[in-house]
Amino acid sequence: xxxxxxxxxxxxxxxxxxxxxxxxxxxxxxxxxxxxxxxxxxxxxxxxxxxxxxxxxxxxxxxxxxxxxxxxxxxxxxxxxxxxxxxxxxxxxxxxxxxxxxxxxxxxxxxxxxxxxxxxxxxxxxxxxxxxxxxxxxxxxxxxxxxxxxxxxxxxxxxxxxxxxxxxxxxxxxxxxxxxxxxx
Length: 184
Hints:
- There is one protein chain.
- The protein has 184 residues and is α+β, with helices and mostly antiparallel strands.
- It has one domain (3-100, 137-182): Alpha-Beta Plaits.
- It is built from 4 helices and 10 strands, in the order βαββαββββααβββ.
- The strands form 3 sheets. Strands 1, 2, 3, 4 and 5 form a 5-stranded antiparallel sheet that branches. A 3-stranded antiparallel sheet has the order 7-9-8. Strands 6-10 form a two-stranded antiparallel ribbon.
- Strand 8 (139-143) and strand 9 (150-157) form a beta hairpin.
- The chain is globular.
């Protein structure tokens, strides 16, 4: 991961930044399925309770240029500012960006009831207990391409560390093991 580029969502009176960032992230995901899966990682340098307005893409110069050669930002160009592909600065730390999942979800519990693993009453009780422990991480509201169901994709960024860990990234640009460079 020697290169990066940043996509900044611009302020807009008609759309919230979170709405535009979710649309941007959805388009990125659909493009990574066909181009760059495994080679491109993401980070959110301005994330707090929301992902923020900046999406940073990390990868080789070739992978990032190949991604940007696709017309995946169509419809969002007026709402975003895209930097050029640049070298990673010399002094960086590294973070892991991964998916955070709630322990229990309504759909998981429905499947457990359907399998006969638990009763409906047990499922309701478990769901009520789990709802006390809300996930506070930034997330995207996405729509599954296979089931058309909406779901939240929670993102967790680790604390910066000195050493990098190599690995591949999924079609969301995240990894359970690999790190990406982290810098202001």
